[in-house]
Amino acid sequence: MAASPTRDDFDHYMTPNYSPQKAIPVRGEGSRLWDQAGKEYVDFAGGIAVNALGHCHPALVNALTTQANKVWHLSNVYTSEPTLELARELVERTFADKAYFCSSGGEANEAAFKLARRWAYDNFGEKKHKIISFKQAFHGRTLFTVSVGGQPKYSEGFGPIPGGIVHADFNDLESVRALIDDETCAVVVEPIQGEGGVTPATQAFIQGLRALCDEHQALLVFDEVQSGVGRSGKLYAYMHYGVTPDILTTAKALGGGFPIGGMLTTDRVAPSLAVGTHGSTYGGNPLACAVGLAALTTIDTPEVLEGVKRRHELFREHFEVINRKHGVFKEIRGMGLLIGAEMSDAYHGKARDILPLALEQGLMILVAGPNVLRVAPSLIIPEADIQEGMARLELAIEQLVAQAS
User: Fold this and answer.
1) 281 appears as a binding residue in the annotation
2) Domain boundary among 299, 327, 356
3) Sorting pLDDT into bands at 50, 70 and 90, what band is 159?
4) Catalytic residues, which ones?
């Protein structure tokens, strides 16, 4: 019998594009995880905003096992009941008229950007192709999405990258006004920049983007891969702003841990994604859609969404208490259960140093770049787990402070 895999096996067998922490979780329940040695962890990472109902939630387990005994995969030559049920629920609960499914957030954004250009081509001709995105944005790892993203480090060495993409300053409407013109087909924005530092867009900024897009006959695309499906305290973050996009992308929490992505759009735009223009082998997979339907209907309830708001305040209070003692944070920001704590000047760039220290204390947590500590836990994380996890975080921060003194 082969020995259990170890962290050294990762370095031996896997490509080196990741550098995971030392612990290997083998079991999860709710907002707790256990590693190979039986050590318990509080999970504030949530699979990077994916495990929106924690680990092994009964509704998701039931949906997966029930569908697993029916049909797994059909391809897009056929459709399935779970696919149509999930599409119907998403359309009825949002601004959208049509849904498209794929396997990840990057694929959802790839589809959105292709649709935006195709729509402009169909309606205005090939010159209307420019996409405006934002510095520090993150939209995925395909060559197209990483080019639209506003972090050059992710596209360096993979050129030549797709053209016709320019980047404005997030929350700076005048920088968009300086770039937008009649050749612009779309403005692409995260309502909350996630990987770029957990920074919410302002109301005026989002409203201004909508007005500029309308003025120049461009589409407004919201990337809600990280902020969507309850993460903000509403089903989608656009609902906080009262501004409707033309295209919205969704993934992560949509499957609660099962890989699925989606793109939502309107009847005005959808016809440009005609038969043969785009596709995904696993898109609309019955297994994924069955789990997605269970996740969506479980999350989009007053009980869960109101609970997100209450938990946000609890996290913020704990962060502020820690900061009053140790002075390690400059700003606590975010929306719902996507929260970022920017490091103070004295600890600039030290956010990543907290991860292994937290792991030693039995806490899994995230960063958003080198200078922002990020939490994106289950939307239903018990308040006792928040209390315990923040106590463990404080112990890790005490170690960080001691190392710096």
Assistant:
1) yes
2) 299
3) confident
4) 138, 223, 252
Query: Known binder of ligand: residue 205?
Result: no
Strand 338-343 versus strand 329-335 pairing type: antiparallel
What are 33's strand-pairing partners? Answer: 28, 41
Q: Is 16 within the bounds of a domain? A: yes
Mean pLDDT of 214-241: 98
Q: Does the pLDDT value for residue 46 go beyond 80?
A: yes
Q: What is the pLDDT of residues 273-313, one digit of tens each?
A: 999 999 999 999 999 999 999 999 999 999 999 999 999 99
Same-domain pairing of 45 and 74: no
pLDDT reading at 405 higher than 90: no
Last residue of a domain, one of 299, 333, 359: 299
97 marked as binding residue? no
| Statement: residue 150 has pLDDT above 90 | no
Q: What phi and psi, each to the nearest 5 degrees, are found at residue 267?
A: -65, -20
* pLDDT confidence band for 349 (50 / 70 / 90): very high
Q: Which domain holds residue 146?
A: 70-299
Q: How far is CA 230 from CA 104, 227, 271, 372, 378, in A?
A: 18, 8, 29, 22, 10
What does the pLDDT average to over 355-379? Answer: 96
Q: Token pair of 93, please?
A: 């609960």
- 303 is known to lie in a ligand binding site: no
Can you tell me the distance from the alpha carbon of 37 to that of 22, in angstroms, rounded to the nearest whole number?
12
| Confidence at 154, pLDDT banded by 50, 70, 90 | confident
Which residue, among 31, 140, 138, 41, has the nearest Cα to 358 in the 3D structure?
41
Q: What is the mean pLDDT of residues 328-341?
A: 97
Q: What angle do CA 99, 104, 109 make, to 5 degrees?
A: 65
Does the annotation flag 224 for ligand binding? yes
CA–CA distance from 398 to each of 136, 214, 323, 401 (Å)? 30, 51, 11, 5
Instruction: Quote the Cα angle for 377-383-389, to 5°.
Output: 60
- Read off the tokens for 163: 């053209």
| Judgement on whether residues 309 and 346 belong to the same structural domain of the protein | yes
Inter-residue contact 253 to 47 (CB < 8 Å): no
Ligand-binding annotation for 320, yes or no, is no
Work out the percent of the chain whose per-residue pLDDT is above 90.
93
On whether both 87 and 29 belong to a single domain, the answer is: no
Tokens coding 366: 């995230």
Residue 223 annotated in ligand binding: yes
Which 3 state secondary structure label does DSSP give 83? helix
Task: State how many domains the chain has.
Answer: 2
Q: Give yes or no for residue 1 having a pLDDT over 70.
A: no
Report the alpha-carbon distance of residue 261 to residue 180 in Å, rounded. 29
